[in-house]
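step: validate -> pass
step: tokenize input -> pass
step: predict -> running
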Amino acid sequence: IISYGIRSVLCAPLRAHDKVVGVVYLDHRLEVSRFFERELRTLEAVGKQAGIAIENARLYGDLGQHAREIARLKAHQDNIFHSVATAIMDLDLQGRVVSLNRAAEQLFGISEADARGRSYPLLCGDVLSARLLRGFMAHPFGPASPRLHGRGRGNSERDDYDQSASEWHRSAFTLRRHAAP
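step: predict -> pass
step: emit ->
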């Protein structure tokens, strides 16, 4: 400070949610005691806004990194889904086809694009649909399973989701078992 001829210095923290992420600094080379309480309050306000902006930029960067990682994992999952030799049908909560892998396309003789949105009984036919339903009902994670209904109440949105996820898993398991030659 002396070698630069600085006569007045004012510093304030860059804060983001009570966490110091940096420092903002002002100096003056001509006057001693140039800065007063008013300038300090102004600099602290600027420091708070700048700190929040810095923290938001960091969080935004983290979000982008997480989004890229999720996209990479999804691509990997899609690659596995489409490359397995077992026929797999992905259904929504209403039993409509969301996607098919290549083995399911070959088994049912329909492209994924043409199958998308169709009810699985229309795609599978009455006989296979009935077999899937019987297999689903007889599976160890069937409707009587405590795991199927979360905590056993069977009346919450989470329990409905758990049940739907279990139903899809059981249907995929049964499809593999019955569709194999």
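step: describe -> The CA atoms of residues 139 and 170 lie 7 Å apart.
step: cleanup -> pass
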